[in-house]
Write a structure and sequence with these properties.
The protein has helices spanning 88-97, 114-118, 127-167, 271-280, 297-301, 310-350, and strands at 3-7, 12-16, 30-34, 37-42, 51-55, 63-66, 71-72, 76-81, 121-125, 179-180, 183-184, 188-191, 196-200, 214-218, 221-226, 235-239, 247-250, 255-256, 260-266, 304-307. By secondary structure, it is α+β, with helices and mostly antiparallel strands. The protein has 3 domains: 3-125, Adenine-n6-DNA-methyltransferase TaqI, Chain A, domain 2 (Alpha-Beta Complex), CATH 3.90.220; 126-160 and 311-355, Helix Hairpins, CATH 1.10.287; 188-307, Alpha-Beta Complex (Adenine-n6-DNA-methyltransferase TaqI, Chain A, domain 2), CATH 3.90.220. It has a 4-stranded antiparallel beta sheet, with helices on one face. Strands 13-19-16-17 form a 4-stranded antiparallel beta sheet, covered by helices on one side. Helix 3 packs antiparallel against helix 6. The longest helix is centred in the middle third of the chain and has 41 residues, at 127-167.
């Protein structure tokens, strides 16, 4: 197998993205990429797809592959491969394997130093071998993507069931139930705090985290793992500071960070029902922070919500719990696929393993 030993600058260019403030974005389907991934959509692309995006500021060294046209903002680079040396897809896997996150050149705001990245030594196999490696790794990514789509469909079916029963009030037996002022007989309208109690999360600096399997939740999702849980699952977490509106159901024991609110007490609402109730409330609209978006739990506690009769809530819980079990299995399978792929990636890139 022919191998070329060279530097990254000999294989590709890391081109700068372009500033695109939210106020200048127009409604569309073009994904807008920042260093944390897709951060919105726009009507006009900057780059024709497919493409590879690399985090430059913020989440340094993150690497994304986008099949369609996209708009990379100024916190990222996008890749222009020298196609006589490297294919676009191979450059994606190559970049994922390089220690880009360690090439931070800014103490205040993390930033990927392009010159240091360009000087990294790389090994380039022949185009045929690159194709074989890409095909092998892509088989894992295709399975992961298919499972993600299945998860999205399952999540959507649960959301639609909630909407049908508890928003449009077309629940089982609704034709035989009298509705007065949009409240079905046997239901009530009362403050959220009568159904559940939200509590601020807990500090856990990165320096104090110990490797383990307990998920640590920040305002938008899992932020790492720890060896000890702070809260027993199942539970519900939402953003308190920084990013608002994301409501997450957590099946297992977990650690909610202080940028979140978690449901400390389920009074009338079950965990699954509470998840969809809070999502339907659109919590991002309760921002009480001037500089940093902040969700005030006391304000949310006072909001009047519909409380269904317990029998119907339990029926919803049973149906959606089965959906969530399928979702959990797919997520676990995806984690195993990603772990297997990530173990194979450096071996394929180094030539230790051939395909």
């Amino acid at each position: 197998m022919s191998i070329i030993e060279c530097q990254l600058k000999d294989a590709l260019e890391l081109a700068y993205g372009k500033s695109l403030p939210e106020r200048n974005r127009k409604e569309g389907i073009v994904p807008v990429y920042g260093s944390g991934g897709i951060g919105g959509y726009h009507s006009v692309p900057l780059v024709e797809g497919p493409g590879v995006i690399v985090g430059r500021k913020g989440t340094v060294g993150s690497v994304y592959f986008e099949k369609n046209d996209f708009f990379p903002i100024d916190t990222v680079y996008f890749v222009r491969p020298f196609l006589d040396k490297i294919s676009l897809e191979y450059s994606y896997y190559l970049l994922k394997n390089l220690p880009l996150a360690s090439l931070n050149s800014d103490a205040a705001v993390p930033g990927l130093n392009r010159d240091r990245a360009y000087s990294l030594p790389i090994r380039l196999p022949s185009s045929d071998q690159q194709s074989h490696i890409v095909k092998f790794l892509r088989s894992y990514d295709d399975l992961i993507e298919n499972n993600r789509r299945r998860i999205q469909l399952l999540e959507e079916s649960a959301r639609l069931l909630y909407q049908e029963w508890f928003v449009h009030l077309r629940f089982p037996g609704h034709k035989q139930v009298k509705i007065t002022d949009d409240v079905p007989e046997g239901w009530s309208k009362e403050p959220l705090e009568n159904l559940l109690v939200l509590q601020r999360g807990f500090d856990l600096p990165v320096s104090k985290r110990i490797e383990g399997s307990v998920p640590i939740y920040a305002s938008t999702g899992i932020n790492g793992f720890h060896n000890v849980a702070k809260v027993k699952g199942p539970g519900v977490v939402t953003g308190r500071s920084g990013s608002l509106g994301t409501v997450m159901y957590v099946a297992k024991d977990y650690w909610p960070l202080n940028t979140t609110l978690w449901v400390k007490e389920f009074k009338k609402a079950s965990p699954i029902f509470a998840t969809y109730l809070l999502r339907a409330m659109k919590l991002e609209g309760y921002n009480g922070g001037a500089a940093v978006p902040t969700l005030n739990r006391n304000d949310v506690h006072k909001v009047d919500v519909l409380c269904p009769e317990s029998k119907l809530m339990n029926e919803f819980e049973v149906q959606v719990e089965n959906i969530f079990k399928q979702i959990d299995k797919l997520k676990e399978y995806n984690e195993k696929l990603a772990q297997a792929r990530d173990l194979l990636l450096p071996k394929l890139m180094s030539g230790e393993l051939t395909v």
